[in-house]
Design a protein that fits this description.
Elements: H1 3-27, H2 31-51, H3 59-66, H4 72-90, H5 93-98, H6 100-128, H7 136-145, H8 151-161, H9 165-193, H10 201-229, H11 237-259, H12 263-277, H13 284-311, H14 313-316, H15 322-352, H16 361-369, H17 375-385, H18 392-424, H19 431-458, H20 463-482, H21 485-489, H22 492-516, H23 522-542, H24 544-552, H25 559-571, H26 575-610, H27 612-639, H28 641-669, H29 675-692, H30 704-710, H31 719-728, E1 730-734, E2 739-741, E3 749-755, E4 758-761, E5 766-769, E6 774-775, H32 777-782, E7 789-792, E8 796-802, H33 803-812, H34 814-830, H35 842-863, H36 872-888, H37 891-894, H38 902-905, H39 907-924
Antiparallel strand pairs: 1-8, 2-7, 3-6, 3-8, 4-5, 4-7
Length: 925
């Protein structure tokens, strides 16, 4: 086949694709529907021209279309990696995770259900009609092929009519993952059908899981490697785009040919990782350029694979018989039934178990009717038709029914989906949005009219021409103003919801503006965009409560932070915790700035639209959010003031660099400076930007040496004893509100506060402890359970000491032991409101006495005196002497006056403790 003919045919296909786009828009159809129709017509025309007896002129070009130079394997290798990677690249991963339950159900469970429904429905008919070589495996193979859905047509329709964004996310996420699941099942069944593998059901499930999990691992690894290489190509966008193009192809080949795992899953996972981490390694403008290039490449790939597959349809359906029509009807009914079972039967179960947001019935109906099949199904069918190990009967059976089903879904579902959405009213504005539209339109047209008047005066345009142009705007503004009473008819909570939705949308725009101006790092922008999107969704569904819930969520500590904290506590690995804490610091500072800008937007834009009453409510909502954000920042600033100053200085430097760049760009646009000078100035700007974009490292201050040396209890100890204590201690980082000790638990450690403050909470009162205090020691001394809850009031640096190490420490240091015993007695008074409690707990006394006796034993042994082995009375007397000695110590020795001492904070608690002490002494006497 000559190269010029192939090139010419390729050019004709590209021209056809380009001309069909405006035609599809004019006809109101999805482009994929037209591509399939025109491709089928091209296939029919090619067959006619090739085999007609009237002329031989077109035989050569017709052969190109009848027997294209690309087989099924080449089509899969050339086009499929691009389609999968681009879909993963455009998805909002964090928003997808909010609907991961419905997506996984539709993507994986639905594939198994569809495969089973179709296979089990066809197999009895294959037996009835005595279809040769059509086994159950062949029927299931067909089911796996038609189980894949194509989101291109459906999402195009959604965007065209303005369907809810969440509906599009679910459909796109479903298609991305169900392609992977269906192809894995297809490969396993094809190997079983051709005799390459003989697997039982359990072995097939294990093979599926191994292939799927292996693809995830390989894809994630290669994706991270590609992301790590991006900074090497800094400021070279063409090189970075080229690397992104090599990633899906390399991943597909490596997974399929060498790693023996699912290549489809690997490409999807690589694209997801690249999408998740890439923005932090690429400048915003380059990331947008990369997306634009990939959108063009994906458009070519999707259109070509659709057109090439459709051209082969006439060959696939050749010789269609009435039995084939009956089988096709069975496939259609079984596929629709399987999808209905999953959507209407299994999807509500997820909402019952709180595994995802609920999906309303209208959405479910659209999802049911939107299960169109496309290029992947046709390509898999083509691969079956070309497989040498399959019999002709099996190949014809699969290709005919798969092709017929694709045509049915495109021509029936594709043409009727848009009317269905309109019938359900999903393309219409609700009453709130319609009322807001009229109010906004009235104000906007009024502003435009004033702007035109100013422009007419500035350009010296005559009043007659100006009045003629202004009349149209005056009429439209008057018509909109006549309908603004709709907004007044709405309840306050409806208008508040409108305002909050506007705030959420404006916040998303502010995030993009900061990202474009490079004052927000790529590391943080994806999180902010996810947050603003979730805020908008929850506000639309739950109103003000949803807005508050969404805006308060990022102030909490997420799972990744808790995992980093666990690494620090269990393994003493501090770097992940330092990174997460620095991320939180940066996030909160930007979050505060966004809230300030939203307050200005609310007063200047929303208040005139919705009125002062709603404006005040929105102002209060933003003020509460601002206060909570400032509290979170102050808690961090209290612990790390220097780092807070460094981050604020960094943000200010970023703003300065952006202003400097804007100044140079404006001067260049106004021709004040030339291209060479502008380029030289921008080089200086880029160097300054790189310098200020390196975030300062955060030192958590969790070095045991420094914490022990700074703690008041250990400050005066000799260096040798400090070193011994350091070996026993474990540094621990606590967050505000964290429950450090739970009442009723067994005591396993005591805690020494190096910085920060905690609160001991009892049923009757609360006691605050600060730097230099100890808590958790009572349960270790008594052997009992915890007597109160202890909660961190802010970020705390603690030194934890295990039970046995605590006892050893007390035995080795008499002064420290006496101090801790005094604190323990005082704390037990604080933790109880029971006047009859016997405070001289025999366990505590024996503990103190045993330690004292142990100390005396060592002195006796040193002096050569004998010590009796069994001396309980001596131990008891020693305990009483020790308790009396503690009681007789000066106030300075007994109470080191901790920060936020309870008697200063709670006089009633102090009085209570004194009364309990007097009662206890009387009872002891």
């Amino acid at each position: 086949m000559e190269t010029p003919l192939i090139t010419g045919a390729f050019a004709l296909l590209l021209i056809t694709i380009s001309l069909l786009q405006p035609l599809a828009r004019r006809l109101g159809l999805a482009p994929s529907v037209l591509l399939a129709t025109v491709g089928t017509m091209i296939g029919i025309l090619a067959i006619y021209l090739r085999y007609t007896a009237e002329t031989n002129v077109f035989n050569a070009i017709a052969d190109v279309f009848i027997n294209p130079p690309l087989d099924a394997e080449m089509i899969l290798y050339i086009f499929l990696p691009i389609l999968l990677f681009q879909t993963a690249l455009t998805l909002d991963i964090r928003r997808i995770m909010e609907d991961i339950g419905p997506i996984l159900l539709m993507a994986i469970v639905a594939v198994f259900v569809a495969t089973a429904f179709i296979g089990l429905a066809l197999y009895p008919l294959a037996l009835v009609f005595s279809l040769k070589d059509i086994s159950l495996i062949a029927c299931l193979l067909l089911g796996s092929i038609v189980a894949t859905t194509d989101p291109v047509a459906v999402v195009a329709i959604f965007r065209d009519i303005g369907a809810p964004a969440r509906l599009g996310r679910i459909v796109e996420g479903e298609s991305l993952l169900n392609d992977a699941a269906a192809i894995v099942i297809f490969v396993i069944l094809l190997h079983m059908l051709t005799g390459q593998q003989t697997l039982s059901i359990n072995e097939a499930v294990i093979a599926f899981c191994r292939s799927f999990a292996g693809g995830v691992i390989v894809g994630a690894l290669l994706g991270r490697i590609a992301v790590a290489l991006l900074p090497i190509m800094r400021d070279i966008p063409l090189a970075q785009v080229t690397l992104s193009l090599a990633l899906p192809y390399g991943t597909y080949v490596l997974s399929d040919q060498f790693a023996d795992v699912s290549a489809v899953v690997a490409v999807v996972c690589a694209g997801t990782v690249f999408n998740f981490y890439g923005p932090a390694r690429i400048q915003p403008a380059i990331w947008q350029f990369l997306h634009a290039v990939w959108e063009q490449i994906s458009f070519w790939a999707a259109s070509l694979i659709f057109l090439l597959s459709a051209i082969l349809i006439p060959r696939f359906v050749e010789g269609f018989t009435p039995v084939d029509i009956l089988l096709l009807l069975v496939v259609i009914i079984a596929a629709l039934a399987a999808r209905a079972v999953v959507i209407f039967g299994l999807l509500p179960v997820l909402s019952v178990f709180k595994m995802g947001q609920s999906v309303n019935s209208k959405f479910k109906t659209v999802m049911l009717w939107g299960g169109m099949r496309g290029a992947v199904t046709l390509t898999l069918a083509l691969s079956v038709s070309e497989h040498a190990a399959l019999s002709e009967e099996v190949s014809d059976f699969v290709t005919k029914l798969a092709t017929g089903f694709v045509l049915f879904t495109l021509l029936v579902y594709g043409t009727s989906l848009k009317p269905l959405i309109r019938l359900l009213g999903l393309d219409q504005l609700n009453a709130r949005d319609e009322a807001f539209r009229t109010q906004f339109l009235a104000l906007s047209l009024s502003d435009v009219r004033h702007g035109l008047e100013t422009a007419a005066k500035a350009y010296h345009i005559g009043p007659e021409v100006t009045a003629q142009v202004l009349k149209d705007y005056e009429d439209r503004a008057a018509a909109a103003a006549a309908e603004t009473d709709k907004l007044a008819e709405l309840k306050d909570w409806d208008r508040v919801r409108i305002g909050l939705i506007a705030l959420a949308d404006r916040e998303q725009q502010l995030v993009l503006e900061h990202f474009h101006e490079k004052t927000i790092s790529g590391r943080a922008v994806s999180r902010f965009l996810t947050l603003t999107g979730r805020t908008g969704d929850l506000t639309r569904s739950d109103g003000r409560s949803g807005y508050n819930k969404a805006t308060r969520q990022p102030l909490k500590f997420d799972l990744s932070f808790r995992l980093a904290q666990a690494l620090q506590r269990r393994l003493r690995i501090t770097r992940p915790l330092a990174i997460r804490l620095a991320d939180r610091f940066e996030f909160l500072l930007v979050y505060r700035i966004l809230a300030d800008e939203l307050i200005v937007f609310c007063n200047e834009q929303i208040r005139p639209l919705l009125g002062d009453r709603v404006g005040d409510i929105l102002q209060d909502t933003l003020a509460i959010r601002q206060d909570e954000t400032l509290q979170a920042i102050d808690a961090l600033r209290l612990q790390y003031p220097d780092y807070a100053d460094a981050l604020e200085a960094q943000f200010l430097r970023k703003t300065g660099v952006r202003l400097e760049e804007t100044t140079y760009d404006d001067a260049k646009a106004q021709m004040l400076i030339g291209t060479e000078l502008h380029r030289d100035l921008l080089q200086d700007v880029e160097r300054a930007r790189r310098a200020c974009h390196t975030r300062p490292a955060l030192d958590l201050g969790l070095k045991t040496r420094e914490l022990v040396s700074a703690h008041p209890l250990f400050a005066d100890l000799p260096p040798k004893q400090k070193k011994a204590i350091r070996r026993m201690m474990r540094p621990q980082f606590a967050t505000p509100g964290e429950l450090l000790i739970r009442k009723g638990d067994r005591g396993d450690a005591a805690y020494f506060i190096a910085s920060g403050a905690v609160e001991v909470r009892t049923p009757t009162h609360a006691v605050r402890l600060g730097r230099g205090d100890v808590f958790g020691e009572i349960a270790l001394m008594t052997g009992g359970r915890r007597s109160a809850d202890v909660v961190a009031l802010g970020y705390c640096q603690l030194l934890s000491l295990g039970a046995q190490d605590f006892k050893d420490l007390m035995a080795q240091h008499e002064e420290l032991r006496d101090h801790v015993i005094a604190l323990a007695k005082k704390r037990r008074f604080m933790n109880t409101n029971d006047d009859t409690l016997d405070m001289d707990d025999p366990v505590l006394s024996v503990f103190a006495g045993a330690l004292s006796t142990s100390h005396e034993d060592r002195e006796t042994a040193a002096s050569g005196e004998d010590t009796p082995v069994d001396a309980p009375e001596a131990a008891e007397n020693a305990a009483e002497d020790s308790a009396a000695e503690v009681e007789s110590k000066s106030p300075e020795t007994k109470d080191p006056a901790p920060v936020d001492a309870p008697d200063a904070k709670d006089p009633a608690a102090s009085k209570n403790a004194e009364e309990n002490t007097a009662d206890q002494k009387t009872g002891t006497a």
